[in-house]
Design brief:
2 helices, mainly beta, Methylamine Dehydrogenase, Chain H, elongated
């Protein structure tokens, strides 16, 4: 059975004028470009043509939207990029999606954009296109680039990357071939190739054109400048003056085409026969200036011109070839009354003729993407929207713009505004792939610590006070709400209200497995089943009003601290007090070490004490904080401990010796919560600004800020 392509039938319609465009479409005013513009950087179809991936976002907050092409519904949003996602590329088998991004990782939580400090990195990330889960991440070596693009080879074994960086008067590119599975370097093809040059003058023939509007640099940075031949044997790179070809297996340069008298605008390989199509545009400087374009077809093996096609499009911006290899789809613009009008043209190579359609927009068609079966096409005339075209009827079936339900990321201004909301509790999941935080009057957020993406947000509209807790495995969250406890199943998002009448609740704690909730009220502790709300036990006999509760890591012991500095530990099997400790001073934090035999407490004067629960003796007292300590956390192995407080610092200590390893500074307000990742490589610290800072435990460097 022969594959069905819609484009030949469409070509007949175009020639005989049977094509219609939506009548309601009018030319929008020119787009005003700012740092906050929700820009579309790339759009690509999945190999089965069922999913459209759109990379978009503001200049420092990117995301990838995965859309169901037929239904027009949003399947998933991949967020957490701290910068633009310049390209998306599906593996030919459809099992993974690779994003190429350049991201800015702040060195701390900063209150003003003018104070932005941090580091830029160029990153490749592998995603499951069905679930949006991160599979792998590679940070490219060297200085951060202006942009980064990646493209799979036809057999899916290679990734071609183009890393653009600023040079004097131009943007230059480094071209590499990587292993598509691991991201390891296979071949450096060429370094410091000119990608595009900044214009130094304006041709009279062009008049008012999209080429010289404020988006010139962005449009040129978005151009895909590499393309594989259909058999994967050749890789082509182009700029405005030349096309170069390399053997993708050996890395040897096989061809250089630079005999162009005019501006080179786009390059594409035909799927059948491997013909190389090169589009150029020329302008005359005569008394009556003109603009025209043509397309030359080359034999990539010899560099010989096999055909020259005189197309109708005056200025070509982008080019793609139909799957049958017989039609070219050309995007560009026509000059009408000194105004650029965006156009699409379908050109039949065998017939040597074509026909064009006006999109209804001013400007230019700047990008094109065609599905593998040729039945769907996307184009852009505006930086913030993508139009989806059914090539069987040549109608726009959907426009994906900044108002589409894409879960817009925070704009760059809001990413650096402080709020008074504190992150009161933190916990990593057992596999370390998520970190959950409870935010004062801001609900519950769950992030992917590897990407910074917000995976889930719960209860952001529910009023919650300052008494909260998260189970150590991150599965259950508890919030005190008046005379009740609000319990969340973080995985499902289900909420349960457990009545708890009998007076004000002063403290709450969840067992490590999230199955038991402890409530502290006056001098009593109530233990409840978190799943059913059933009362399990009442602990009575505390010496003073309870302010803090903490479960041991095995869930068998509960520690309580009162206003007068008394700490008691309870055996939950029999409800008996096992130890009473006089800490001296107002307790501000309480935490068990993983060994269960050590309990750490902190006081408002900044002292941290470690207690031996077998003897009740003070084994270490740590004095380095200059303000009250609000949070304590131990690594899973128990070898290190972290403390954070009002002095806006986090200190990492050796548990055995009490020696401070390093002091972490990066939060503008008080530290209110801490949690180690299961493998001990990351430390999450929550502050008084509804944000979480991730630290590299080994180096003490800031990893990223979660907002």
């Amino acid at each position: 059975m022969k594959p069905r392509y819609a484009l030949p039938a469409l070509f007949v319609c175009l020639l005989f004028g049977a094509v219609t465009w939506p009548q309601a479409q009018t030319r929008p005013p020119p787009r005003v470009f700012t740092r906050l513009t929700d820009i579309v950087y790339a759009a690509r179809f999945s190999p089965d043509a069922r999913t459209l991936a759109i990379a978009r976002g503001a200049s420092d907050a990117g995301r990838v939207e995965l859309w169901d092409v037929e239904a027009g519904t949003l399947r998933h949003v991949i967020g957490g990029f701290d910068g633009p996602v310049w390209s998306v590329s599906f593996a030919p088998d459809g099992t993974s999606l690779v994003t190429a991004s350049v991201e800015f990782h702040a060195s701390g939580v900063q209150d003003k954009i003018v104070r932005r400090e941090g580091r830029r990195t160029a990153e490749l990330k592998w995603w499951d296109p069905q679930t949006g889960e991160l599979k792998q991440q590679v940070t490219l070596p060297g200085a951060a680039q202006a942009n980064l693009m990646a493209l799979h080879s036809p057999d899916g074994k290679l990734l071609a990357t183009v890393e653009c960086h600023w040079a004097v008067g131009s943007y230059n590119a480094d071209l590499k071939l990587l292993d598509a599975r691991t991201g390891e370097l296979r071949v450096k093809l060429k370094q410091d190739l000119t990608a595009f040059e900044m214009p130094s003058f304006r041709s009279a023939a062009f008049g008012r054109t999209p080429e010289f509007d404020p988006l010139f640099m962005l449009v040129n940075l978005r151009r895909q400048r590499v393309v594989f031949s259909p058999d994967g044997h050749f890789l082509a790179f182009w700029n405005s003056k030349e096309v170069r070809l390399w053997n993708s297996t050996t890395g040897a340069e096989t061809l250089k085409l630079n005999d162009f008298k005019h501006s080179l605008r786009a390059v594409a390989f035909a799927p059948l026969g491997g013909t190389l199509a090169v589009a150029t545009t020329s302008s005359s400087n005569k008394k009556n200036p003109t603009i025209s374009s043509d397309i030359r077809l080359y034999d990539p093996a010899t560099g010989a011109v096999t055909q020259t096609l005189p197309v109708r499009t005056q200025v070509i911006s982008c080019l793609t070839v139909a799957p049958n290899g017989q039609q070219l789809i050309i995007g560009g613009w026509q000059n009408e009354q000194d105004q650029p009008v965006a156009t699409l043209e379908l050109f039949d190579i065998q017939a040597g003729s074509g026909s064009s359609v006006k999109t209804g927009d001013n400007g230019s068609v700047s990008t094109l993407a065609l599905s593998s079966n040729g039945e769907k096409l996307t184009f852009q005339t505006d930086v913030s929207s993508v139009s989806l075209v059914d090539t069987q009827t040549w109608t726009i079936t959907r426009t994906f713009d900044e108002n589409s339900d894409g879960g817009a990321s925070p704009k760059s201004v809001s990413r650096f505004l402080l709020s008074v909301k504190r992150v009161l509790a933190l916990a990593f999941s057992a596999n370390g792939k998520t970190v959950t935080g409870e935010i004062e009057q801001g609900g519950i957020k769950q992030w992917d610590p590897r990407t910074g993406e917000v995976k889930k947000q719960l209860g952001e509209h529910d009023e919650a006070g300052a008494i909260v807790d998260i189970s150590a495995n991150g599965t259950t969250a508890a919030e005190v709400a008046d005379q009740s406890i609000r319990l969340w199943d973080v995985s499902s998002g289900d909420k349960k209200i457990v009545p708890a009448s009998g007076g004000p609740i002063a403290a709450v704690a969840l067992s490590p497995d999230g199955q038991t909730v402890a409530i502290g009220r006056a001098e009593k502790i109530l233990l409840l089943n978190a799943g059913t709300g059933e009362q399990l036990r009442m602990l009575e006999g505390h010496r003073a009003n309870i302010k803090y509760l903490a479960f041991s890591t095995d869930g068998r012991t509960l520690a309580t601290a009162s206003e007068d500095g008394t700490i008691q530990t309870w055996d939950l099997a029999n409800g008996q007090v096992t130890k009473t400790i006089t800490a001296g001073g107002k307790i501000t934090a309480l935490c068990f070490a993983p060994t269960h035999s050590i309990l750490a407490s902190a006081t408002e004067d900044g002292n941290v004490s470690l207690w031996d629960l077998k003897t009740g003796a003070l084994t270490l007292q740590l004095k380095k904080h200059s303000g009250a300590v609000n949070a304590i956390a131990f690594s899973a192995a128990g070898g290190i401990m972290a403390t954070g407080g009002d002095d806006r610092t986090v200190i990492i200590w050796e548990t055995a010796s009490g020696k401070s390893r390093r002091t972490l500074k990066g939060q503008d307000l008080t530290v209110t919560s801490l949690a180690f990742s299961p493998d001990g490589t990351l430390l999450a610290s929550g502050g008084g600004n509804a944000s979480v800072v991730l630290w590299d435990v080994r180096t003490g460097e800031l990893n990223r800020v979660l907002k």
